[in-house]
Every structure is written in structure tokens, then in C-alpha cells.
Amino acid sequence: MAGRKVLIIYAHQEPKSLNGSLKNVAVEELGKQGCSVTVSDLYAMQFEPRATRNDIVGCLHNSEEFNYGVEAREAYKRGDLSDDLIEEQKKVQEADLLIFQFPLYWFSMPAIMKGWMDRVLVEGFAHKFPDCYSSGLLKNKLALFSFTTGGSKEMYTKGGISGDIRYILWPMQHGIMHYCGVKVLAPHICFAPEYVSEENRKEMLLVWAQRLKTLWKEEPINCSPEWYFK
Amino acid sequence: MAGRKVLIIYAHQEPKSLNGSLKNVAVEELGKQGCSVTVSDLYAMQFEPRATRNDIVGCLHNSEEFNYGVEAREAYKRGDLSDDLIEEQKKVQEADLLIFQFPLYWFSMPAIMKGWMDRVLVEGFAHKFPDCYSSGLLKNKLALFSFTTGGSKEMYTKGGISGDIRYILWPMQHGIMHYCGVKVLAPHICFAPEYVSEENRKEMLLVWAQRLKTLWKEEPINCSPEWYFK
């Protein structure tokens, strides 16, 4: 699949972590296939997660009452978003596939990555009601959530204390990516790497590399309530 | 319920917003009842959402490979968390009730509030496996998620395009608060305030004030998969 463009949005503080290695495996494997791979290393970039007035360059649309969604939409139209957002939006625009690589924090992504979602996926760029879900503005792109957990696979089952892992995926996969029209590949989950042997962690990297070899042949999931809550 | 302590964790950039007014209503109404109310105004505090090495004062437990969860746990034991975290933990420790007031961003809380969860609810302070869920370390406290949405009530129903609003509450109520042992009161949701009349927005404030009058008589929800996915 030479020529395809991949953006990896990566959120881990430690390059030597399993998340760091999973990210490296993706860069290498997709590179070998001839894909062009870009990484947004959020902690290394000290990416700003807070949605504030600083995201809008120059005057506000309504300086009497600050509404972030409205201001970001208007600033996008005028080309007046802050440089870091314009940069991320360019990367998204060019990408065929977005890979989100992170450790699960509190049944969701770390705040630094949530901030990427909050700030980059501006109305007019990623969606524009009623252009959402199947007609979202980022249609024809793919996304894949790749993450590690603290809890075991057994805890994240229907009868387990933390419930089916798919419950957690609804806000991220459906509420964010699908809303923007992005098609979602099956998630890639490494359960409880901190509690397994070094050998098992190496195996996790091999499994990911193996999956990436045939990733472009995969069909997206059917991103509807049935997939999550059946 | 004089003497009860309430902590409002508030995330909106604009004091004049409906979220700002909802927060003010809670401060006033609970104050009238003789409760002691503290507000963590996250944007005004420029609260840091990123979980980094800066949260640990002094030397690391393992300086070879940075693991945020381990380092925060060890720093908590030593009393070596950064001052802003110690301050927030004190407020949580003293509170009988936590109210989270925010606009829904992407089927979840804004990144600045997710960062509060990621950084404040440290292992050893809020939970310590297997002391989680019913035996979480913050048991005997209550939490209430109060938020505004962009989408309408109809969109957030089982047959609506955004699915049942309860699906979204699972990670926040069950995955975070219940995990720490906190009992959860029914959420308070103002749907699509930007698309209703000024009169209707005022009505939303009255409904909230009214609910607060008898809040202490409410029973927590049964925070189990049935409540969310039945």
C-alpha cells in the first residue's frame, strides 16, 4: 500500500514504554510498506489540551460572551486558528489513516489526547451539522484506536467488574471518529502489559506488527450501537 | 443539610455561560442550606491537564523508565506530589459531594477536566486495587455530573443518531467515580441550551435550583451495567 499516508497520534511520556514500542513498530512496519508516516508525539510537543481563547488569533467573533465552539468555527473560516491547530489539521487532512496510540486512563484517553480531539476537530473542518456520521467531513479516512490497559481482559468483559471493553469505545470511536465521518477499524488492545512477562510484552509487539501487514485489507467495523452493546 | 461540604469542579471559559450560571446557582442554593461550598474553577486556575514528570517533586522512584501511575503512587506516599495536586486532593478529602459542571465535549468531559481526573485521583489516595468500586478509598462521598450538550434530547436516545445519553455516562460515572467508591447521584443534563430561547435557559436554572433543594434526600443510582445499557 505504498503511498498511503498515516498519522499516528501518540500519547505516552516514556519512549521506552510499551506504548512507545507499539508506536515504533507501526512507524517501521508501515514505512516498510511504502506508506508515509507522520507522528504527533503529544507529550514531546507539549501539546496544549485546554480549549481557550488563545486558540483564536486576533479579534473574537463575539467578545461579549466567549463560546469556544463558535469562536473556533469562525476562526477556522477566517484562517485564524492558532498555528499548532493549523499544523495538526494539515496532518489530518493529508492522512488516509489515523492511529491513536495511548495507555487507557480512566476508561478513556489521557487528557492530552482528549485535548487534541477537543481542539483539532473544529466545526467546518471535521464536521458541520448535519454533515456528521456517514456524511462527516473526514469521510474516506480510517481510524484505529490502539491502547494498553491497567486492568486484565477478564475485568473488561460483560460479566467483569469493569464491563465490556466495547462500552468504553463508544465515546471515542462512535462519538468522535464516526461523528466526523471517519471509518473505524477494530481496536488493538494490549491488556495489562505491566502484569505480564517481558516475553509476553515482546509477543504483543509481534502481534501488532503482524496485524499491520494486512491492515489495508481490513474492513471497518459496523460502528452502530449493536457493535458496542449487543 | 447545614455543615455538609461540597466541591464543585467547574470547567467553562466564560462566566456568563449557562454552565457559569448553573455553577452560581449551586453555590447560592447550597450556601443557603448552610453547606460549605468550594469551587475549583479549572480554566481560571489554568489547571494543568497533562500528566507529566512535573507532578512529582524531587527524585523519581524509577528514573530509567518513567511510569506515571507508579511515580504518582510513590510520590503520594512520600508526600511529594506537586502543590496543585495536594491542594485538589485536600478539597476532595473534605467534600461530602463532588459536582462536576461542564459542557459535553465529544461525548465526554473537556480535556481540562479529564486532566483533573487523571492527575488528582492518584492510586493510594482514591483507590488501591483491590480497594475499588464498593471498597474504593473515596467511599461515603457522592458525585453528580451536571452538564450541557450541543445535541438535542432526541439525538441522545436509544434510537437517536448519538445513542442513549447513558452510554456516555458509563466511563465517567462508573469508570471513574464508582471505581473510587464514590456513590453517584442521577446526572443533571441541560440539552442543547444554545438552541432554545432565553426564557427556556432561565427555566433550566430554576429546575436545577429546585432539584438542589432536595438533593440530600436523593438515593444514588444503582451504578451497574443495567442502569446504562438495559
From TrEMBL, chains A, B:
Instruction: Show where the Flavodoxin-like fold domain sits.
Output: 5-211
Indicate whether Plastid appears among the record's keywords.
Answer: no
Q: Which UniProt keywords apply?
A: Cytoplasm, FAD, Flavoprotein, Metal-binding, Oxidoreductase, Phosphoprotein, Zinc
EC number in record: 1.10.5.1
Chief location bin: cytoplasm
Question: Which cofactors does this gene product need?
Answer: Zn(2+); FAD
Q: Which SUPFAM superfamilies match?
A: Flavoproteins (SSF52218)
Q: Where in the cell is it found?
A: Cytoplasm
Swiss-Prot/TrEMBL catalytic activity? 1-(beta-D-ribofuranosyl)-1,4-dihydronicotinamide + a quinone + H(+) = beta-nicotinamide D-riboside + a quinol
Q: Which GO terms describe its cellular component?
A: cytosol
Where would one find coiled-coil regions in this protein?
none
Q: Which InterPro entries match?
A: Flavodoxin_fold, Flavoprotein-like_sf, NAD(P)H_dehydrogenase_qn
Q: Extract the GO molecular function terms from the UniProt entry.
A: dihydronicotinamide riboside quinone reductase activity; metal ion binding; NAD(P)H dehydrogenase (quinone) activity
- What do we know about how this protein assembles, alone or with others? Homodimer.
Quote the function comment for this protein: The enzyme apparently serves as a quinone reductase in connection with conjugation reactions of hydroquinones involved in detoxification pathways as well as in biosynthetic processes such as the vitamin K-dependent gamma-carboxylation of glutamate residues in prothrombin synthesis.
The UniProt family comment states: Belongs to the NAD(P)H dehydrogenase (quinone) family.
Question: What is the recorded name of this protein?
Answer: Ribosyldihydronicotinamide dehydrogenase [quinone]
Q: Which organism is it from?
A: Apteryx owenii (Little spotted kiwi)
